[in-house]
Design a protein that fits this description.
77 residues; mainly alpha
């Protein structure tokens, strides 16, 4: 009369170990997602740095070309 109804309820040490295992699996899944986001952020930052470096290099090259075109040679009198 005072027991559990349904018959499928897990009680005792086995249920506790099952819930601990479930907690560990969920925690590992969350850590894996966080690690993937972290690596994705590092990859994105790297690609943005490469693009920015390419832009700076092209601007420097264009400036050098324009500087060579505007070079004025002074002649000795």
């Amino acid at each position: 009369m005072g027991g559990l109804s349904g018959g499928n309820a897990r009680t005792g040490r086995g249920a506790e170990e099952g819930y601990i295992l479930l907690d560990v699996v969920v925690a590992l899944f969350i850590v894996m997602i966080g690690f993937a986001v972290f690596l994705g952020g590092i990859g994105l930052a790297g690609s943005l740095c490469v693009r920015q470096n390419a832009r700076v290099q092209s601007m420097i090259e264009q400036r050098n070309i324009h500087a060579k075109e505007h070079t004025v040679l002074f002649q000795k009198e």
